[in-house]
Amino acid sequence: MRGALVALAAAGVASSGLVARDARALGQVDLELAAKGGFGTNPSTTNPSTPPNSLAFEVGGRAGVSFFGFYAGLDLVDSLGSSAPGTGPRLPGDQTTLAERTLRYGVDLGYGWKLGRLTIRPLLGVGNVTVSTTTTVLDTCPYCAAVTPPIVRTSSASNLYFEPGVTAFVAFGTVFAGVDLNALVIPSVDDGNGGHRTDAAFTVHGQVGLRF
Length: 212
What we know:
Elements (H helix, E strand, L loop, with lengths): L1 H25 L2 E12 L17 E10 L2 E16 L8 E18 L1 E3 L2 E22 L11 E22 L2 E16 L5 E16 L1
Antiparallel strand pairs: 1-2, 1-9, 2-3, 3-4, 4-6, 5-6, 6-7, 7-8, 8-9
């Protein structure tokens, strides 16, 4: 009887070890934290090749949970944008500079497939994107008696965004590194003439993070 109990206990320990090992192999529950940086194309559909590009350089991060391959997480990206000479009414000698940058935050949902150390995960991001615009008018008249301080005007507009894409990363223990490619779609953007348009861009980021 005693021998049977010992054998049963040993079998229980062995089976629990196999279950734990299998759960880890399947990636039952993983917490992921990652920093990322990259760039995007100009989202303006009216002048896509004309600066400024509000997505010129981006930094951010994400945090999420993967459960049996399904992923849900939060995403935050701050774009430093860029600036360019502005246009519009101005006095002779004035210089106008237009600068744009964006901040977007939202949720990501997706599912990943593991191929050894490699994980490929299609995702759909949904959230809010805020575009901030700064217009600076500088009086550069060389014959003026007094120097006029720069005139700075700022404005911002927020819109819903959708960002389908795919993330691929390679894990080495708790550390992983990878890349994501996305299509950023911003519907119902005010076109300034009482109507609306849809802006779109492509974004790419490198990622480095930890998985627990």
